[in-house]
Amino acid sequence: MKEALNDILVIELGTVLTAPLAGMMLADLGARVIKVEHPNSGDPFRRHAGELYSPHFVAYNRNKESIQLDLQSESGKADLAKLISQADVLLDNYRYGVLQRLGFDDECLKELNPRLVQCSITGFGVGGPYQDRPCYDAVAVALSGIGSQIIDPENPVVSGPSLSDNITGMYGAYGILGALYNRTRTGEGAKVEINMLEASIAFSPEGFSQYTRHGTIPQHFSRVAISQSYAFRCADNRLIAVHLSSVEKFWQGFIQAIERSDLLEDERFATPPLRTKHYQELASLLGETFITKLCEEWCERLAAHDVPFAPMNNVPEVMADPQVRHLETFYEVEHPERGVLTAIHRPVRINGQRGPTDKAAPTLGEHSDTIRREFGLF
Questions:
Q1: pTM, whole model, 2 decimals?
Q2: Which residues 6+ apart lie within 8 Å of 271 measured at CB?
Q3: pLDDT digits (tens, 9 = 90+) for 299-331
Q4: Which residues are catalytic?
Q5: How much is the pLDDT for 357?
């Protein structure tokens, strides 16, 4: 099957995470993505492990080509202009004003390529009091309200994977795809703008709806209480997650699985709204039960009663999980210099196929010579 974006050329001026993720998503759909990197150092994400090919970089840059260009030099700017003139998409996540200072403002880009879809990812958008401030994941998570809904104020620890970075990269790819489709109808390019603040707010709309409709300010346990989501420690110290939702059959099956029929007689837990109201009390009681048996036994009991559950897998356990193995989520790809690497298939299948995702993340400037010859660069 011909990939959806086989004929699309993307020039990525991406560093660290947001734009590289958007570029990788387009590459996974078949686009040719040329990553423009600074000579000698490249994308700062390359250096996270004290080398120029860190696991962080590998995770967000598969299926791309790399060319080294010094955009502070006139020759580097001229080379970039040639690439842009032949591209379909220009993707960047520079701080506001950087691209303009390099000489590539909106007017210049339109003159170079009227059909160009330009996607600009910033921290806080254009204008406003925060326009020139630096933005990273923890900053956007905090400012957008996500942090207040996932961090316990009594034990304020920022943890887990990058949320705002990944969210923004996904919205970037989404915007680019919409603009490319619109170009098929109008023949005209477009400027797509995404910022980490708004992307993060849009990704968690529930809390804003609760506040504007009922005046309720969500706390770090609000969503889990409403959805009746729990995490319990088992006798072998493993954790297990349970999600009972508002479907009464899950609550009934759960009670049978854990053999706690006494809870059915407790007026505090008689209905879903009451279980939400008394969430912390219920969680404490259930925790006393789960600590009495091994995680594997709880998994068997919950599965037998059709309760939504899962063991809290760490990374190696995810890779060994039988469902993950069935889906063939992970695959190995060999890089000519770096050896065999483990990669993740795109999670989207089209007509039952994932597409030929078989190119490892590039080393710095790996394709410079090839690209220079092909595009007639200096």
A1: 0.92
A2: none
A3: 999 999 999 999 999 999 999 999 999 999 999
A4: 165
A5: 66
